What we know:
It is built from 7 helices and no strands. By secondary structure, the protein is an all-alpha fold. It has one domain: Arc Repressor Mutant, subunit A, CATH 1.10.10. Helix 1 crosses helix 2. The longest helix is centred in the last third of the chain and has 19 residues, at 83-101. The protein is globular, with a radius of gyration of 13 Å.
Amino acid sequence: MGFLDGILGGVVGAELTSLVSGVIERHGGVSGLVAQFEQQGLGHVVQSWVGTGANLPVNADQIHQVLGSTTVTQLAAKFGLNPQDLAQKLAQILPQAVDKMTPGGAIPNS
Length: 110
C-alpha cells in the first residue's frame, strides 16, 4: 500500500488516499478496475485515463454502475459519507488517480 500512498497522496490528498486505494484494491488493482469499466461499456473513458492524452470525465451515476451499489454503499458507510457524495468524490478523483498510476499509458502488473 505504500506505493499507492506515494502516488495518490499527491493526487487526492491524504484524506481520500485510503478511499481510492480501497476501491482500486477491491477491484484487483488498476488492471481489474480498468476491466470493470470496460465490462460496463465505459472502456473508452477508462482508457483515456490510462493513455497519455486528456482524461474523459465520469459521473456519479457511472461510478455506481461500474462499482455496484453495494460496494458504493459499503464504502460510503466506512468513510461516513452518503453513497451519492462518495460516488461524486470518486468521479472527481479516479480519473486523476488512474492517470498517475499509469505513467506512459502502461497499466502496472499489480
